[in-house]
Every structure is written in C-alpha cells, then in structure tokens.
Amino acid sequence: MINDNLDRSIRAIVGDARPTPEAEAAMDDAFAAIAQEAAARSAAPSPGRRRPAPVLVPRWARAAAVACAVCLGVGGTAYAADALGLINLQQSGDYQTLMTVNADEVAAPATGSVADYRLEFAKLPEGAAAFDRDDHLAKYDWADHEKGFSAFLFYLDSSEPLPVSFTTGATPVSVNGAEGVVFEKPDIAQGDHTLDMYLVFPDKQRVLWLWTDSLTADELTRIAEAACLIPTGTEVTPGSDGTLRAWSEEIAQARGAGEETETAEFKLDASAEEMSALHAAGETFAVPCFAEQTWGDADTSAGVLTATVTSVAVHDDLSTLDTAQVPDEWRALVGADGKLGEADINYVAWGDGRDRLDEVVSTESAPVKLVEATVEYRNTGSTALDDTLVYGSLMRAQKTGDTWSIFDRSDAVEGADDAVCATPGVTDGEMWYHAIDGAHAGEKNHLSHLAPGEAATVQLAWIVPADELDKLLLNLSGAGTYASFDESDLALGYVDIRQ
Questions:
Q1: Which tens digits make up the pLDDT trace of 177-214?
Q2: CA distances from 199 to 71, 182, 184, 209, 407 (A)
Q3: How many whole angstroms separate alpha carbon 448 and alpha carbon 440?
Q4: Is residue 352 a contact partner of residue 263, using CB atoms and an 8 Å limit?
Q5: Range list of β-strands (E), 204-283
Q6: Which of 194, 215, 279, 493 could pair covalently with 219 via S-S, beta carbons 3.0-4.6 A apart?
Q7: What is the DSSP string of 375-409?
Q8: How many angstroms separate the CA atoms of 27 and 66, rounded?
Q9: Which of 187, 189, 188 lies closest to 419 in space, CA to CA?
Q10: How far is the C-alpha of 55 from the C-alpha of 42, rounded, in Å?
C-alpha cells in the first residue's frame, strides 16, 4: 500500500480522535529511541562528506501508532475509540462520543417502503404501564411515577456518526445477540443521571434506543432482553408519517439540524397591547378544545369549550390535595410540623456537552408555598365531548411600566444560565398536579365525557418559591408553554393569578 493510501485509510479510522497525553509521551519516547538507534548504526561522516540528515520516522508510521493508541485506548480512555464490530465509538471531546453503526452492508437509504416491525416487550417489570405507544415507540411509567423508560425504533439507513453528548461513560453490551452500547449521562443540576442504550438489529435494519432517568443499567438491560421486533406483514415508509423515524433523522437532529427551531429566539417580552386579553379569576373565556370529536378540526373546536378559574388559593401545606396525586418530591418538603419548608435551587451554567458539562455555580434554599387554582371547563356546544385534554401551565412574569417580561430567577446570579430544582414545579411551570372531579375523570389529564352544557371541575396546583407569588400567570391554552410568550397564547389570554 502506498503511503498516500495508507494515510487516507488511517485518517478514516482515526478521524478527529486523539490519544491520551500519556500515550503521546510514550510514542515520543519510542520514536526518539528508534531515531537514535538508526543514527548510531549509520556510517560516521568523512571530512569530505556532508553530515547525513537526521534520521526521521516516516509520517505514516507515527500516524499508524496514533491510530493504534486511539483504537486500543493506550494510556487511558479519555480519547479512546473502540471498534466493537457493528458499532464503533470515537471520542470527539471530553464528554462527547461519536457512535457509528457500520450499516453499509445491511441498510440502504429509505427511499421507499420497507418491511415493518412492531416493537413489543415479552415481559415488563411489575408496576410498569404504558402511557404512550404505537408500533415504533413505547413509553412506560410506574404508578408512583418514581420510575419510567422510553423506547424508540429507528430504520437503519446511515453509517454517519451519531454525536452522543454530555456522556461520562460508554459500556459495550450484548443483549440476546444484539450488539449495543450504554451511555451514562450525569444530571449535575438535579443530582441524578440518565442512561441511553442503543441496540442494533442488522437483519431487520433497525436500531432500538432505550432511555431512562430512573432505572439502573441492570434494570434497563432486563427490559432490553424482553424487547421483540415482530413482523407486521406490511410495509412502511420511514419518516413518511412520523411513526418510524430513519436513523439518519436522529443523526441530523443530534448534529444540530433542528438548531433553527431549537435555538430560535423566545419571546420574553410583551407589550401592554399584546397582553390586553389578560383574564381575571372568575372570568369565562373560550379555550382550545382537544377532544375526540374536534381533534385537528379548528372550525369544529372553536368556542366549544370554555374555562373559568373559579378560585385561587395559597397554602402552607398539602392538606387540600388528593394524597394519591401528590408527587413524592412534594411530600419531602413537608416538615415535622406538617408545613412546607424550603427547597434547594441550583443555579446552573450550561455546558456544551462536548468539552464542558453543566456546572452548579450557586445554590440557595428558598421558602416555598402551594398555589392552588380551581378551573371549571364547560361544553358550550351542541355535541358531546369525549376524551378532552386539559392542561394548565404556570408562567412567571412581571410588569414594568407598559412591558411584561418573563421572570428568570437565574438573572440575579452571576454566571448562571438557569435555576433548577429537583422538586417538580418549583422552578418550572409544567402541570405536575391535577385532580379531575370523579364524574369526569378520564385517562391521565383527560375529561372522560362532557354532555352539551355540562361542566367539569379540575384542581391544579404547584409548589413555588414564596417570593414568586406576585409573578404568576396561568396558561390554559393546552400547549404547556411557560418559559416564553406565544402569539396564539397572547391572543387567547393568560389568567392573572398573582398574589
């Protein structure tokens, strides 16, 4: 093999990876010794001859040694790449790994329909129940919400590397003959971790991704052992309807193909005119209707469902809530006197996932309160509504002059990008607690049935820092937005529940 071809082959193997400093030093010493030995064996120059040029180690030889050091992980694993067969791992930064599935032999770009497989689990841990699933994804949760996992099936159509960021460890695994790898990602801000397991099924042209933020690697492996890809006898076009995604789509997203939408500027300020639809507690207004009869039909859903915040209250304890619905993390904030105490809030500087992890720059303990809002939903149409979604999110905003601005607690801490609390609701506005009256309680956060003219009552609650009680707006659009203003939500109007 000529040197140029060898160079190209080595570059293809190594890419951007580099050996550890220890390996670099060892190679320097080895090549210096080689050069000294070669020089010592060369003839001494005569007075009439030019001194011979220094003995140099060929460029390709050092490149090959670098490749060996990288592939073998000589001197450590900080920049190691592991050839695992179908899967190749290459470190591209301190906390980012490039995972390549060598699919050239088994997969082709998804230009048409392919044989379909349905994802099933032959056995699941006791207590696990599906809350969202179709043929190509499955999301399971335990009744106490303490554990859960998600599974996604991809069509294998690319051998491009997938960047896996914010990872501190990669462990090769083999599950029922399927080759795979488990990545561990620490969540420094909230003191826990996530696990990502990828398994390759070359004969079926599929990659299975299992994700959890609450199970151990052993528990996740046992779930993976029960995973089955069942032929459906039909065909599906990857990426055509969103049910079966192509592996290349996942790679593109991880590389930042969705950066334009993910990093789009959020609307953090709104004028008094834009906030003119602000509602007071007790005011009735129309909200979007996501019901079985109206889903996806804007004309049919318009004005069918109304909402009225009938009461807002602040409490020092959890006594007004349905015990079965209360998150365990909320109970942990209750002291011996039965009152809510303080929650720890971490101020975090976000890392880039490649060379820096997230970092906690400051921590404070903030007194917290329970904020409770009771909402009445009424069917004002002439047709019954079934399986109607209800969702309320809590926003923090403050008014200065004629301008409303989203309140960001981290602005007060130098070097912080965000304020994060392990207790749900304290620093975010998702709907962590809801209780629907018994006559209308459906699956999860859905109203089971609403006849024309009938009303249902929903209790919403959040744990919030006491110093944010004067900054609370309730968003009943169903979109779940709480960290920025949204044009459609502004037109609908938020509910002013400031205390």
A1: 999 999 999 877 666 789 999 999 999 999 999 999 88
A2: 21, 9, 15, 7, 42
A3: 5
A4: no
A5: 206-212, 227-236, 245-246, 269-271, 279-280
A6: 215
A7: EEEEE-SSS-EEEEE---EEEEEEEETTEEEE--G
A8: 8
A9: 189
A10: 9
DSSP state string for 334-375: B-TTSSB-EEEEEEEE---SSS---EEEEEEEEEEEEEEEEE
473 strand-pairing partners: 395, 496
Distance CA 143, CA 130 (A): 10
Q: What is the 3-state secondary structure (H, E, C) of 435-476?
A: EECCCCECCCCEEEEECCCCEEEEEEEEEEEHHHHHHEEEEC
Residue carrying structure tokens 């030093």: 25
Q: Are 279 and 359 spatial neighbours (Cβ–Cβ below 8 Å)?
A: no
Q: How many CB atoms lie within 10 A of CB 24?
A: 16
Strand partners, 447: 388, 441
Burial class (CB in 10 A: 0-12, 13-18, 19+), 32: exposed
Strand partners, 496: 280, 473
What distances in angstroms separate CA 269 from CA 41, 396, 406, 479, one per listed residue? 77, 12, 6, 19
* Sheet strands (E) in 272-336: 279-280, 284-287, 305-315
Amino acid at 86: L
Span 257-314, pLDDT tens digits: 434 444 457 899 999 999 999 999 999 999 999 999 887 665 566 789 999 999 999 9
Q: How many helices (H) and strands (E) does the chain have?
A: 9, 29
DSSP SS3 for 105 = coil
How far apart CA 350 and CA 331 sit, in angstroms, is 29
User: Considering the entire predicted model, what is its pTM?
Assistant: 0.72
Beta bridge partners of 134: 137
Using the 8-state DSSP alphabet, how is residue 274 labeled?
T
Rounded CA separation 244/236 (Å): 8
The residue behind tokens 């409303």 is 404
| CB neighbour burial string for 110-134, b if at least 16 within 10 angstroms, e if fewer | beeebebbebebeeeeeebeeeeee
Residue with tokens 């003191």: 191
Residue whose tokens read 């689990």: 121
H-helix segments, 302-421: 328-331
Strand 359-379, strand 455-465: pairing: antiparallel
Tokens encoding 239: 């990426």
Cβ contact 460:281 at 8 Å: no
